[in-house]
Amino acid sequence: MSVTLRSCHLKDTIALQVTEQKGDHAGHTSTKAYVFQWNRNETKFVYKTNSFIGVPSPIDGKLYKEVKKTVWSNAPEDIPNFLSQFFNWTDSIIPDDAKYSTVVFFETTAGVKTSHYSSTDIRVEEDQIKPIFPAVLSYMNQSGVRFLQRESQLIKGSNEGIDGWISLNYLSRTLLNTPNTVGSIELSSTSSQITFAVAAEDFSNLRSGGVLVDFKNGNSWHLYSHTYPHHGIDTMRGYMEDEIRRTSASSKRVREAPNPCLPTGFNQTKVYSDNYVLTLYGTSSADECQQLIDAVINITDCGAANCGPGKVYQPDMSDISFIGFSVINYAVQFYYNTSNMISVDLEDLRVRSRKHCSAPLDTLKNVYGNTAYLDRYCFYGLYIHTLLSDGFNLKAFNSSNVINGVAVGWAPGAMMYEAMHVADNFTYCGDLSDCSSCLYHTNCGYCEASDNCMPAYTTCDADGWQKLESGGFCKSGDTPVRFIIAIVIGAAVLQIILTVGLVVSYRRWNAKQVAEITHMPLLDREDEEDI
Fold it and tell me: What parts of the sequence cross the membrane (predicted)?
């Protein structure tokens, strides 16, 4: 779930990211808080790296970092305590006189990873997330900031791919160099997303998947993006285990079955929704594991020059360099023993994976010790090779989960888009005695055209920001600095983004132009479907 905070008059940008601590099975997450501070320039993007932690820079601003331990609970009554620790942290950074003008809204995704890995329960549906909403809304209403409940919305998986592409290229410093942008491939627990830029002259010829991303500051990108909602690593592993049950344990009298993707010496017990209990024992067979993956991944000849899994149309991407992240990078870190950006040849990954798949558990432990999830990397490696090589027609890719000190993912991309996007529903207030006209005034703060105007000033002191008795802020002559806060919970629990910032708008991805190109109905952010 993501919660996005936005503001009318804040001066800096803060990003707070909560990520899962790998190998911690006690329900703890490692909370990494990043504070981005920069002078916003509507014609340029500002890049931030961890080299600027706590150190002012006239170009990149400052990046602060804080690490905490947190415990997530699905109980709605625990939501206030969980969120309060982040608001308490931001309270120490955001000036008191700016908090009154902080406007809050939130976005959430429907995909929440459960504690099981069966394909039947891997995805929590919208009606199961809804009980969390009232608790979040109640806290926001009492947080001391303006909360616009009408902007609460559930976003679709298609936005995750686009936001991930923005994050990847923003942090890679390729966002403003369209010919050299990189494609993104994200593999999560429940889904996979592929997104890449296409030439403007080819955009109108796309049969599906075309999205025009417009930052409204002179920068826009023509993208192809597609989400495969059932091709996540754990969803596919669940499908594979269901296939084992179907072919090897069709009778309830059968309580054991071989799993060739597990190492010999490792047993796994599964409890199905019909209360059937099945023990899967490893047999360390690379060939048979590959056969199971081929049976469930649904890669067939589509009869077209370019297509992805499930006969999904995919434009030519032969000249594009891709970066794989999320679960893809976890596997890369394991097989190549590095957390740095690395170029991976898919054939080499296949060879390494098959070697791993052929070894018994004792041999793997002698090599890797007590590495977490040691039993899963056979399936991870072969599945990733099959998806990227046979599914997406790649021969090689780069991989990293961290670029310039910031974790890659859809949440940072969403934050960056919102921070750089000039809002359609925000404008300048002019007449302070009657703000209904919301006219431009050089010394007046932003206000919301569709709501009551925020109070502002006609004068500022020489040093910049000033608060007067009537409330509000102004800054004469300079572009305001922004605050943005983003919180992301790790994949094992829930995702939350808190974003605070100025001039943010509804995320429509220029939907009208997309509709004209793809012959799809006009879609708003809250009801957007995959195209």
Answer: 483-504
Give the pLDDT confidence of 422-439 residue by residue, as tens digits. Answer: 343 343 343 333 333 333
Token pair listed for 144: 């001391």
- The predicted structure's pLDDT at residue 155: 60
| 513 pLDDT higher than 70 | no
Token couple for 293: 């993956």
pTM assigned to the model:
0.71
Give how far Cα 80 sits from Cα of 61, 132, 154, 229, 492, Å.
Answer: 32, 11, 20, 31, 20
**Residue 360: what pLDDT?**
96
CATH architecture of the domain with residue range 158-231+295-399:
2-Layer Sandwich (3.30)
Exactly one of 42, 66, 107, 160 is catalytic; name it. 160
Ranges of each domain in the chain: 2-155+407-427+477-527, 158-231+295-399, 233-294
**252 C-beta neighbours (distance < 10 Å), count:** 11
CA-closest candidate to residue 448, choices 105, 87, 40 = 105
Q: Which of 66, 67, 68, 69 is nearest to 28 (CA)?
A: 69
183-187, 242-246, 396-400, 405-409: lowest mean pLDDT where?
405-409
Q: What is the DSSP letter of 480?
A: P
Q: How many CB atoms lie within 10 A of CB 92?
A: 7
DSSP 366-393: HHHTT-TTGGGHHHHHHHHHIIIIIIT-
Here the tokens at position 469 are: 């008795």
Most confident of 163-167, 303-307, 498-502: 163-167
> Which uninterrupted H or E stretch holds 200?
helix 200-203
201 is catalytic: no
User: What is the model's pLDDT at position 333?
Assistant: 95
Residues in contact with 160: Cβ distance below 8 Å, sequence separation at least 6, in sequence order: 109, 186, 188, 191, 193, 227, 410
